[in-house]
Specification:
It is a single chain. It is built from 26 helices and 13 strands. The two termini are about 25 Å apart. By secondary structure, it is an alpha/beta fold. It is flat and about 195 Å long. About 0% of the residues have low confidence. The chain has a 5-stranded antiparallel sheet, with helices on one face. It has a 5-stranded parallel sheet with strand order 7-11-12-3-13.
Length: about 950
C-alpha cells in the first residue's frame, strides 16, 4: 500500500495544503520532503498516523482550529495481481462517523483496516518509521552478545524495540528468583537461609516447656477459688434483689389503692353534672363557635350592602338625568348590549379612519416634495415626475462591466507609461556610461572593432577590383592601421572594453524595450479612448448625454432612490383610497336605535354610549347587592335559631338575651366537661402505669399474690436479712482480694512463658512464609524461563514468515557496502556477536565508530523491511532525517539504498538539511521533491 495524496485541510498550522506523492516514470517510489526548522515535518509525520489510524482523545493539532474542524484527506493506492486499486477518504475528529469517503458518506474503519493488513498504530510507528535518536539507541543494543543479541538483532530487523525490552524484563525476573551460580544472592537462597534460622530458634524455645506447665496448674487452682467466691456473691445479690422487689411492690400497691379511691369520687361527680350529654354535643358547640364569626361578618355585610344599594340607586338616577331621561323610563330606553357595543366599535373606526386620512394626506405632500428634490438631482435628465416612468437607464451589471474595463485600461495605460519611463531612464543611464567610457579613450567597444574591420575589408575589395590599385592602396593601408589600432587598444584595455561591450548590449536591449513600451502605451491609450467613445454613445441612447462613466454609479443611486420614492407615493395613494370608512350607513342606523338621532359629533356619541353602559352596569350591581343582603340576613337568623335550640337541650331553659350570650354559656360548659374528662383519663392512665410497673417487678405475679408474699415476710424481717447480707459481703470481699493477688503473681510468672509461645508462633509463621516464598521463587524462575522460550520460538516463526528464507546478513552487508562506499564489504556473525568485514579483517561493533554502528543498524533494518515488502504487504516507510550524522559520501550511498527499498515499497524521507536535498538530487536525478 502507498499514499498517493495527503491533504492537510485543517491540521496544526496547515490549511488546505495538499502533498502529491507521484514518482516519475522509471523512478523509485522515494520522496524527499524538505522543510526548514518549524516548517512542520513533525506535524506532517504525526498527520500520517492520525489519517491512517484516527485521532486520539487529545491532540496538539487543534491550536489553529477547534477539534470538530480538524480534517485530513487522502488517496491510498494498492496493487494486487497487476490490478491497481484506489481508496479516497477523509478523516475528522468526532465520535460518530470519523471516517468518510470522498463524497462525505460514512466509511467503516474495517474497510481501511483491510488496506492496513492488520497493522496497528503502535506497530506502524515502530516497524515503518525510524528517526536519528531511535536509530542511535537501537544501534547501541547490538553491542550486547549472547542470548540478548538474538533479540537485539530481531529488533534491528523488524523495528520492534519493545520485544527487546520484554526479553530484558523476563531475563531479569528469571535470574532474580533462582540461578545455578551459588554465589548469586537470589530470592530462593535468601528465603532458604531464613528457614534455617527459624528451625534453630524453635529448638531453643522447646527446652522451657515443663516449668511453664507447673505454673499453669497453680494458676488453674487460684482461678477455681475465685470462681467459688464469685458464686456466693451472686447468690447474695439475688437474695438482696428479692428483698428490694418486695419493698418496691409494697410501695406500688399503696399508690394503686389511693388512685382507685380518687377515681371513684370523680366518676360520681361527673355523673351528677351531665358530663356525657355535654361531651356528646361538643361537635355542635364547636360548629356554632365557627359560625359565630360568619354570622357577625354577615351582620356587618348586610349593613354595608344597604349603604351600597342606596349609593347605586343615586348613581343611576344621576346618569339618567345626564342623558335627559325620566327615572321611570330608564329600563325601557336602554338599548341592547350588542347594539351599544357595535355602535362604539363603529364610532372608533370612523375616528381612526378620519385620522388615518389626515396622516396619509400629510405624508403624501411630503413624499411628493421629496420626489421633486430627487428628480432635480438626476441631471442631465430634465423631465418631470410624469415622464420619470419612460426613463430607461443602463443596467448596473452592464455599468460594472464597463467600469471594470475602463479601470483595467487605465491601469494598463499607467503601467505602460511607468514601464516606458523606467526603460527610458535605464537607456539614458547606459548611454551616459558609454559616453563617459568614450571620453576616457581607453575602452574600445567590440562594435567599433567590427565596424573598422568591415571598413578594412571593403577597402580591400575596392583595391582588388580597381583597374588602378595605387589609387586605393593608401585608403586600404589607413583602414588596416585603424582596425589594428582599435584591436590593439581593445586588447590592452580588455576589462574596460568588456565593460563597454556590456553597456552597449544593455543599451541595445533597453532601446528595444523602449520601442516596445511606446507601442504598448499607444495601444492602451487608443483602447481607452475607444471605450470612452462607446460609453458616450450608450448615454446618448439613454437620453443622458454628458453623463460620465465615473459619475454614473452615483447618478444611478439617485435614480433608484427616486424610483423607490415614486413607488412609495403610489402606495400612499392606494392606502388613502382604502382609508374611507365603509360602515357609515350602519352607524347612522344604530344612532336612531340608541335614541341618539341628530348627534353628529362622534365623541359625543361615544360619551352617551359610555353613560348608557354605566347605567346598565350599575343596575346589575344593584341587583347583586340586594340579593347578597338578603342572603346575609338569612344567615344571621339561622345562627340565632340553632344556638337557642342547643341551649334549651343542655341547660333546660331558653336562650339568654342574645345568641352570643347563650353560645358563651355553652362553650364554658363544654370546656369544664373536657377538663373533668381529662382528669378521669389521667387517673386511669396513672393506675395502668402502676399496674405495668408492678408487672415489671416480676412477670406473672398479680396484686393478690404480691399481698400474700408481703404478709408472709413483713418489712422488719426484710431489714434484718439485708443487714446480714451486707456483713457476709464484707468478709468474702477480703477472701476475694487475697485470691486475686495470688492469681496476679502467677500470671506475671507465666508472662515470660507466654512471650516464648508468641515468639514461637511468629517463628513458625515466618518459617511457613519462607517455605511458600521458596516455592514461588522456583515457580517464577520456571515461568520466566518458559515465557522466554515461547517468546524466542514466536520470534523465530515470525521472522521466518516475514523475511522468508533469504540471508538477511548478506542483504544487510550489501547495503552497508553501498552506504560506506565499499569501505566495509559486509557483515558476519560469530559466537553470538555481529562483525563488520573490512578488507580481510572482521571488526566487532565495539571497535566501530558511533556513526558506523548506526549504519550497521540501518542496514539490518532496511534489509528486514525489504524482505517483508517482498513477502507480504508493507506500509510506507518514514525515514526522519536518518543521514544527519553521515558524511556526504555515505549520505549518497544511503539514498541509493533507500531507492532500492523504494522499488518494493514507498519510502518518504524527511529532512531540514538543504545539503541532504542536494545530495539526493545528485544521487537520484529527477527524484520526487515536496517542500513544506
Amino acid at each position: 500500500m502507498r499514499i498517493a495524496r495527503l491533504g492537510l485541510e485543517r491540521y496544526g498550522h496547515f490549511s488546505e495544503r495538499t502533498l502529491e506523492f507521484a514518482a516519475g516514470e522509471g523512478m523509485p517510489d522515494l520522496h524527499v520532503v524538505f522543510g526548514a526548522n518549524e516548517a512542520g515535518k513533525s506535524v506532517f509525520r504525526k498527520s500520517l498516523s492520525d489519517f491512517l489510524f484516527g485521532f486520539g482523545e487529545q491532540t496538539f493539532a487543534n491550536f489553529a482550529c477547534d477539534y470538530s474542524d480538524l480534517l485530513i484527506t487522502g488517496v491510498l493506492e494498492n496493487e494486487q495481481n497487476g490490478n491497481r486499486q484506489t481508496l479516497s477518504c477523509q478523516r475528522r475528529k468526532r465520535r460518530k462517523d470519523p471516517l468518510l469517503d470522498a463524497a462525505g458518506r460514512p466509511l467503516e474503519q474495517r474497510q481501511l483496516d483491510e488496506w492496513l493488513a492488520g497493522v496497528t498504530r503502535a506497530r506502524y510507528e515502530s516497524e515503518f518509521a525510524l528517526d536519528q535518536p531511535q536509530m542511535e539507541k537501537s544501534a547501541a543494543s547490538l553491542l550486547k552478545g549472547g542470548e540478548r543479541f538474538f533479540y537485539a538483532m530481531f529488533s534491528a530487523v523488524s523495528g520492534m524495540d519493545a520485544v527487546f525490552a520484554v526479553h530484558q524484563q523476563l531475563h531479569s525476573q528469571r535470574d532474580e528468583n533462582w540461578h545455578s551460580d551459588q554465589r548469586r544472592k537470589t530470592r530462593y537462597r535468601q528465603l532458604q537461609a531464613v528457614g534455617k534460622e527459624c528451625d534453630r530458634k524453635l529448638g531453643e524455645l522447646q527446652l522451657a516447656a515443663p516449668a511453664r506447665q507447673q505454673v499453669q496448674d497453680q494458676l488453674t487452682e487460684a482461678q477455681a477459688a475465685i470462681d467459688e467466691i464469685a458464686a456466693g456473691h451472686r447468690a447474695r445479690r439475688q437474695d438482696a434483689a428479692r428483698l428490694a422487689s418486695l419493698d418496691r411492690a409494697e410501695s406500688v400497691l399503696v399508690r394503686i389503692e389511693e388512685d382507685r379511691v380518687k377515681l371513684d369520687q370523680l366518676r360520681a361527680e361527673a355523673e351528677t353534672a351531665g358530663l356525657k350529654r355535654v361531651l356528646a354535643a361538643g361537635d355542635r358547640i364547636e360548629e356554632l363557635g365557627q359560625k359565630r364569626a360568619l354570622a357577625a361578618a354577615a351582620d356587618q355585610e348586610s349593613a354595608q350592602l344597604a349603604r351600597e344599594v342606596d349609593q347605586r340607586q343615586a348613581t343611576i338616577k344621576a346618569q339618567a338625568a345626564a342623558l335627559g331621561w325620566d327615572e321611570p323610563d330608564i329600563a325601557a330606553r336602554l338599548p341592547a348590549r350588542e347594539k351599544s357595543e357595535r355602535l362604539t366599535v363603529l364610532a372608533h373606526e370612523i375616528i381612526q379612519s378620519r385620522a388615518r386620512q389626515q396622516d396619509l394626506n400629510s405624508e403624501l405632500v411630503d413624499s411628493r416634495a421629496q420626489l421633486a428634490a430627487l428628480l432635480s438631482r438626476l441631471q442631465p435628465w430634465q423631465g418631470e415626475a410624469a415622464d420619470f416612468g419612460r426613463l430607461q437607464p443602463l443596467a448596473m451589471s452592464e455599468y460594472r462591466v464597463d467600469l471594470g474595463e475602463m479601470q483595467r485600461l487605465r491601469a494598463l495605460s499607467e503601467a505602460c507609461r511607468s514601464k516606458l519611463a523606467d526603460a527610458q531612464n535605464e537607456l539614458a543611464a547606459r548611454q551616459e556610461e558609454i559616453g563617459e567610457a568614450g571620453k576616457k579613450g581607453q575602452a574600445v567597444a567590440r562594435e567599433d572593432v567590427e565596424q573598422a574591420r568591415e571598413e578594412r575589408d571593403r577597402k580591400f575589395a575596392l583595391l582588388i577590383e580597381a583597374k588602378q590599385p595605387q589609387k586605393h592602396a593608401a585608403d586600404y593601408r589607413q583602414a588596416v592601421a585603424r582596425a589594428d589600432e582599435l584591436a590593439d587598444a581593445r586588447m590592452e584595455n580588455a576589462q574596460q572594453s568588456a565593460r563597454l561591450d556590456q553597456q552597449s548590449e544593455q543599451a541595445k536591449l533597453w532601446r528595444t524595450r523602449v520601442a516596445r513600451y511606446e507601442h504598448e502605451q499607444r495601444d492602451a491609450q487608443s483602447a481607452l479612448e475607444e471605450h470612452t467613445r462607446r460609453w458616450e454613445e450608450k448615454m446618448q441612447a439613454c437620453s443622458l448625454a454628458g453623463l460620465t462613466l465615473a459619475r454614473y454609479g452615483e447618478w444611478h443611486d439617485e435614480y433608484e432612490r427616486a424610483r423607490e420614492q415614486v413607488e412609495s407615493i403610489r402606495r400612499l395613494e392606494a392606502r388613502l383610497a382604502e382609508a374611507a370608512p365603509a360602515s357609515q350607513t350602519e352607524y347612522e342606523r344604530l344612532l336612531g336605535e340608541c335614541s341618539l338621532n341628530g348627534v353628529d359629533d362622534v365623541k359625543v356619541v361615544l360619551k352617551a354610549v359610555a353613560g348608557m353602559d354605566e347605567i346598565e352596569r350599575e343596575r346589575q350591581l344593584l341587583a347583586k347587592a340586594k340579593a347578597a343582603r338578603s342572603k346575609a340576613l338569612a344567615l344571621v337568623d339561622d345562627f340565632a335559631a340553632q344556638v337557642g335550640q342547643l341551649a334549651g337541650e343542655l341547660v333546660g331553659e331558653a336562650a339568654a338575651a342574645s345568641a352570643e350570650q347563650a353560645l358563651t354559656r355553652l362553650v364554658q360548659l363544654h370546656k369544664q366537661a373536657l377538663a373533668d374528662q381529662a382528669q378521669l383519663d389521667s387517673l386511669q392512665e396513672q393506675r395502668q402505669r402502676l399496674q405495668a410497673e408492678l408487672a415489671t417487678i416480676e412477670s406473672g405475679c398479680d396484686d393478690e399474690q404480691w399481698r400474700r408474699r408481703i404478709e408472709a415476710e413483713p418489712q422488719a424481717a426484710r431489714r434484718s436479712r439485708q443487714q446480714e447480707i451486707e456483713r457476709e459481703e464484707e468478709s468474702h470481699q477480703q477472701a476475694l482480694e487475697a485470691a486475686l493477688a495470688q492469681k496476679g503473681a502467677l500470671e506475671r510468672e507465666t508472662t515470660v512463658y507466654g512471650q516464648d509461645d508468641e515468639q514461637a508462633a511468629q517463628v513458625r509463621q515466618l518459617h511457613h512464609q519462607a517455605t511458600v516464598g521458596m516455592a514461588e521463587a522456583v515457580a517464577g524462575h520456571l515461568r520466566a524461563s518458559a515465557m522466554l522460550a515461547v517468546l524466542r520460538e514466536a520470534l523465530v516463526r515470525y521472522q521466518a514468515q516475514v523475511v522468508g528464507g533469504r540471508d538477511l546478513l548478506a542483504v544487510a552487508g550489501e547495503y552497508l557496502a553501498r552506504m560506506t562506499g565499499n569501505r566495509y564489504r559486509g557483515l558476519d556473525y560469530e559466537d553470538e556477536r555481529l562483525l563488520a568485514v573490512r578488507g580481510d579483517t572482521k571488526l566487532g561493533l565495539d571497535q566501530l565508530s558511533t556513526g558506523t554502528r548506526d549504519q550497521v543498524y540501518l542496514s539490518l533494518r532496511l534489509a528486514g523491511l525489504e524482505q517483508q515488502a517482498r513477502t507480504r504487504s508493507a506500509l510506507p516507510f518514514i525515514a526522519d532525517d536518518l543521514f544527519a550524522s553521515f558524511d556526504d559520501e555515505r549520505s549518497r550511498g544511503g539514498f541509493a539504498v533507500l531507492a532500492e527499498i523504494a522499488r518494493h515499497t514507498q519510502v518518504i524521507f524527511l529532512t531540514h538539511h538543504r545539503h541532504l536535498l542536494e545530495l539526493a538530487r545528485e544521487a537520484l536525478p529527477g527524484i520526487s521533491e515536496l517542500h513544506l
